[in-house]
Design brief:
The protein contains eleven helices and 13 strands. By secondary structure, the protein is α+β, with helices and mostly antiparallel strands. Strands 1, 2, 3, 4, 5, 6, 7, 8, 9, 10, 11, 12 and 13 form a 13-stranded mixed sheet that branches. β2 and β3 form a beta hairpin.
Length: 339
């Protein structure tokens, strides 16, 4: 048995040595990448490359000159005069993209280690990995590199078994009916003016929320022009009162950002109407699932989570993995969130 385990370990080490890892920050140097995952694609790399204060880092694993896996991490520079602060943070959606899923367990730790060391040398204040489809995926690899997990809430909505109308709560169905009768409308934002209005609303909403980050306007301008990404806006009497940004690939829809005007004497429920339109769009275009990617921490009282559940989805708890550059901060948080 000992000899067998030793042979397996040697084979794994040999397989890992067969791969070459390189990190790219310039699109003109990228090799021919794998397709199928928007969050780790050349498309998103190009969008982020053209977005001020954002820098894309694409970690690529190759064997015999062929790309076998890739992991895209976005580094964002954040700063403000009041309150005064300046730092960078990195964020990745999911585990990456792989030519053969059986190689994921081999390649992910190599890509993760390479990108972690690179960002540490860049003095990145913290690194965050979110949206792991399997809660325990990569647990020992993250732990080995000093990451710690925080339980996070997502809402997953099934679109393939029932029409979205049948899943609405009575309260939400009533809101949709009343607002439609009032003349609240929705459409895909394709004009620069609509996108700019959506961005201004989103920026104002998150202005005082320190953790949540909104990219520069250029991100949304390029985002709206791709076949896998859409911005929807909600209007009343021709004025934009809400909007959301969604991604569509591999049969699933993902909600990245959603916002609505809060101050309105007419009580038009713009955020609800925006999300409802995005759900209908996903269902009508044959997407099987709709994922609200950030419903916040899984507290007992979470108003945003309760709002999203009115659309008929189910709460799913996953891990978000964090690693801070400052050792004392990371050690304290690592101990607090030890599981």
């Amino acid at each position: 048995m000992i000899n067998l385990l030793f042979c397996i370990k040697q084979q794994k080490e040999k397989d890992m040595n067969d791969f070459s890892i390189r990190i790219y920050t310039e699109s003109n140097e990228l090799p021919e990448l794998l397709e199928g995952n928007f969050f780790h694609s050349k498309t998103l790399f190009l969008i982020e490359e053209q977005t001020p204060k954002d820098t894309p880092y694409m970690a690529v694993a190759t064997r015999d000159g062929e790309v076998r896996g890739q992991l895209l991490v976005i580094v964002r520079r954040r700063g403000s005069l009041f309150p005064p602060y300046l730092y960078t943070h990195a964020h990745a959606h999911g585990k990456g993209c792989y030519a053969d899923e059986t190689e994921t367990e081999t390649l992910f730790p190599l890509l993760l280690k390479a990108i972690t060391l690179k960002l540490r040398h860049r003095l990145c204040f913290y690194i965050e990995f979110s949206d792991m489809k399997k809660k325990m995926f990569g647990y020992r690899f993250f732990r080995r590199l000093g990451y710690f997990p925080i339980a996070w809430q997502e809402i997953h909505h099934s679109l393939h078994s029932k029409a979205p109308e049948s899943r609405l709560s009575a309260k939400m169905a009533n809101i949709v009916e009343r607002m439609t009768a009032k003349g609240v409308e929705n459409h895909e934002a394709t004009s620069a003016q609509d996108i700019a209005l959506f961005y201004r609303m989103l920026k104002n909403f998150y202005r005082l929320k320190l953790r949540r980050f909104v990219p520069a306007k250029e991100f949304f301008m390029h985002f709206a022009g791709n076949p896998e990404s859409r911005i929807f806006v909600t209007t009343y009497k021709g004025k934009v009162i809400g909007g959301c940004a969604c991604v569509f690939f591999q049969g699933n829809a993902y909600l990245l950002y959603a916002v609505g005007k809060r101050k309105s004497r007419l009580h038009l429920h713009p955020e609800a109407m925006t999300i409802w339109y995005a759900l209908k769009y996903a269902h009508e275009h044959g997407y099987a699932h709709f994922r609200f990617m950030d419903a916040g921490l899984p507290w007992k009282q979470n108003l945003y989570r309760e709002f999203l559940l009115n659309f008929g989805g189910k709460p799913v708890t996953s891990y978000r993995w964090f690693r801070f550059y400052t050792r004392i901060i990371n050690k304290i948080l690592y101990w607090i969130y030890k599981q």
